[in-house]
Amino acid sequence: MDGSTGAAASAPELLDEDAARAFLEHFRWPKGPVCPHCKSRGAYRLHPRACSAAPVRKGVLKCKACRRQFTVTVGTAFEHSHIPLSQWLLAIRRWCESRKALSAYQLHSLVGVSRQGAWLMEQRIRQALAPRAARSPGTRRRASWHL
Q: Which domain holds residue 66?
């Protein structure tokens, strides 16, 4: 798939990674970034330097209070995933538009990821959209995921 399906073409937040990250940051933090580690509001964006040996990834922020680095995906279903945010947002959109829950194979064909990636996306989306009481409290990290 080339990623220019009808739904992706009609939603600008689904077209590239920078736009998807900006959309998610605005959705998650409407009043500005909040550190997921210490809940402080003071954070600034790190920018890569041309002469740096270790370049900074796009979208990395640093908390002024605890001085830890984080991105918008920390504490969400997108954390520790190599699947691009634009494909995550497209999968969630397709999931919400469908009348019934989508299978991993359907996500694989609609979003254009591998079957293993689609299975991971399906599991995480189901976990994130499940009612709080249905989530297992003993599961590491997944109990606090949200979209």
A: 30-71
